[in-house]
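R.M. (postdoc): so does anyone remember the format we settled on? I'll just put the structure tokens first.
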């Protein structure tokens, strides 16, 4: 009968349900604050950084593939005597992919990342992992391309240029798909700091979140980054 209830002035929730203290955004962005809290602890700001890295990685893939297709089309245009009917489609696909990627990139860098659900990404989430995927998957693909290209082209200068151009196009596609997502995920915290510092609107929105943030499903803190 004398147990405290939520209506009692002195009532406090159990420790596991208490929300962490709130601080100004500058406190959460301070590198010293970030160094004191291990990455495994998590925070809303770190979730926002993960989402930013995933979205930047996703936007970088079509840009890289567009550049790879443009390289292949240009190589064919320069080194082939007969222009294949697929050449205009290669250039068109290159332009479409590049424009799509740049539009996505601009949208990502003009909006505030979400502090909740983490964007799903099946590519690597670190720079080292990106390089590993490039080596593990890229080397066999380049080896297969080597067998195909060597059998098609002779030892002339035009053949050597074609070989180098197609291998470069393949390498650009491999790097864009397997390395760039890992690169942007691995540097997501750095990129979020730069986005907040360089975009006043994003900074204002994140500043407001730092004052009002309440974890909807637990007691995760808003920061540090």
């Amino acid at each position: 009968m004398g147990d405290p209830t939520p209506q009692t002035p002195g009532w406090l929730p159990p420790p596991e349900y208490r929300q962490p203290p709130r601080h100004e955004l500058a406190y959460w962005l301070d590198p010293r604050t970030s160094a004191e809290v291990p990455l495994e602890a998590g925070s809303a700001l770190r979730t926002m950084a993960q989402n930013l890295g995933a979205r930047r990685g996703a936007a970088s893939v079509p840009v890289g593939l567009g550049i790879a297709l443009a390289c292949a089309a240009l190589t064919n245009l320069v080194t082939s005597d007969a222009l294949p009917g697929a050449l205009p489609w290669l250039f068109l696909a290159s332009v479409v992919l590049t424009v799509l990627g740049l539009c996505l990139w601009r949208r990502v860098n003009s909006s505030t990342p979400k502090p909740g659900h983490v964007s799903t990404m099946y590519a690597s989430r670190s720079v080292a992992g990106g390089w590993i995927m490039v080596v593990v998957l890229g080397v066999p693909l380049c080896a297969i391309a080597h067998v195909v290209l060597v059998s098609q082209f002779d030892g002339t200068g035009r053949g050597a240029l074609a070989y180098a151009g197609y291998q470069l196009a393949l390498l650009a596609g491999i790097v864009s798909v397997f390395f760039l997502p890992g690169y942007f995920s691995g540097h997501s915290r750095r990129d979020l700091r730069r986005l907040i510092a360089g975009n006043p609107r994003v900074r204002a929105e994140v500043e407001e979140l730092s004052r009002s943030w309440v974890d909807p499903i637990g007691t995760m803190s808003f920061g540090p980054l």
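R.M.: ...and that's the designed sequence above, right after the tokens. Also worth knowing: DSSP finds eight helices and no strands in the chain. The chain has a mean pLDDT of 85.
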